[in-house]
């Protein structure tokens, strides 16, 4: 009898301890909101993604300094996938299942985004994607904060044919974003009365462009429309100049060459070429200037602000606004809360579409100047609608 009483007392003490331990754990977790930050600081896309990590961190630190979200601090869980889509799938699965993040900000190339989407959907989580992409078959679990072709190319091709010429040679890296974007651009070119004089794709990470450049010389286009992406951008531009084509002869009009790329290319080979994005770091507004200056003073790592950096920055702010608006922190409530959101960003006010999970954004065309920055030579009148294929 005494043994039974002793066992009952010990069991009661153990159960009480377990309850108190559980309460302590829940109390601690309720103080923060976990968010995954999934970018590469190594590999083929590190030139773009390292500063995106910086921008996400800067936004998170700013939000926390202002009191967080509903009184809770954002707890970022940083993860590097080395520009490897397969590794990105593993990393985001860990973020969702082990780290229990409410959403993940990140990934960059379309190949990586497409690799992680099944994991995000199967585990009913949220991905906030901050890079320009081809705009095809969007996932219901992804929020897209950067441009689709309708926002990046619709004004670019007519501007090219009006100002630079109608004969266009298309080049791109051999994966989905360049191919789909060039298909969109070709349709616009034909509608604008232009002529396709060549089309070539090279493997991602390609570094030897002499054969391609010889084909461009033989075709004698007015313009090269480029969707060469990642670290391949730098050798392409350098060899383009090295093998005898200048920007005054045949300018490159790119949808993937940003300020970070120009820094790697160098002014001598980059000046005079064009790019189209929703943001350049030379946008002449008080908000943009303050953003660029703060980034420079915060991160002394030789990176620079690009449209993707600004996209990662406002992507975190859009997520924070959705979390603030959501009734609960489950996936359905968070995604619903994005609908119709409007926020102020370094590029100006932007808004989320009420239906398709994409942002209405600005449209700019920039020309690389002798300082290695972009002179803005075109700005769309108002925000441009994201048209999804």
Automatic annotation (TrEMBL):
Signal peptide (UniProt feature, chain positions): 1-21
Supply the alphabetized keyword list: Signal
Query: What InterPro entries does this protein's entry cite?
Result: AmiC_PBP1 (IPR039570), Peripla_BP_I (IPR028082)
GO molecular function per UniProt: amide binding
User: Pfam families under this entry?
Assistant: Peripla_BP_5 (PF13433)
What SUPFAM superfamilies is this protein classified in? Periplasmic binding protein-like I
* Highest taxon in the source lineage: Bacteria
Name of this protein: Aliphatic amidase expression-regulating protein
Gene this chain is encoded by: amiC_2
